[in-house]
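Before relying on records like the one below, remember that each one covers exactly one chain. Contacts with other chains, cofactors or solvent are not represented anywhere in the record.
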Amino acid sequence: MADSGDTIVTGCLEQVIKEISVMARLRRGKDAVALIVIIMAVLAVCGCMDRGGDGEPQSVPSPDNRVYPELRNAECVDCHALQYNSLEDGRGKHAPLNCTFCHVQHGYLPDCRDCHPETHGATVIACVSCHPDPHAPVERINNSALNSSRCRSCHVPQYEGIEESGGLHSAFECDHCHIQHGYLPPCSDCHGLPHGDDALDCTSCHDPHKPGSIEFDEHDNSQCARCHSSFIRETFTRKHTRHADIACDMCHPEHAVTMLCIDCHAGHNTGMGMRDCTNCHRIGHVPLEIKYSADTTSSVCVDCHAEPFNMMLQSGSEHAYIECVLCHPEHGTTVTCASVGCHTVDPSHGSGGQCTDCHGQAHDLMVG
């Protein structure tokens, strides 16, 4: 069956031949001009010449009188089933569109940026590198050849966070964890459960792109207890103090950060620093449990024990020239005179008595 377009052209040619045969009987010269005019008129009547006034070719309706842009998607499926199904099954705003919204002519592939200009910045021009299927652009945004810098176009906070963190995560490409776009792996795949079965929601404290920067809700001790329960229980219950009744973030405003004692407590003297505080108050959770090192000088003790210290200085005895820790190796304890190896008991002193019976107290010795 001949195409309708071919039939029209054939009819035009037949009409032209008839006109030529007529003009063959006419005289040459001015009649030749008339022949040309007749031929042009025949072509115009047959639709073989441009009749438009704007210089643009006129579209010719299809044989069934349908205009192409009015086709429905279901009419494209016979030849384009793969694209049709992808569009129907996909998510996003492309799904409800008519095929001809993008393909205004058969075979025409539009530039994505006609509708999405610089969505991810002027440097991203190859849309299909992340969106390989424009009929389902959000279904699979993956390309193993891409590096993490391409992800930055859409995921600026995450990209900058992992760069600034400097942790082990910053050494990986994005697809090390996100094997498909939108996939969020459980932290336990790599890290197991380091804080036990009670701490399953890692993101409640850790931002996976900067896991070392731990955030927690204000005044919520229960979050801290997920990881530090044993230490909290062991210290606060051992010796109850006012510290046990306040929120963790009162002293730890950020994770692994401890405020200075002198931010809340006036020092024993104006020259004290944090090192002086922790020299005696080793554990902030149990501040009244005082421990000090063997090289602690008497100048630290005098802040709390000024009376015995001054008494010893005024006594004029040799005790004024030794450090307090020699006789008090632990806070609140005192060794016997003989046990430290400083004094031997003279036989003439007899036995059964105490040194203090004759010499008074150690800080104010009576000599002679």
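The radius of gyration is 47 Å.
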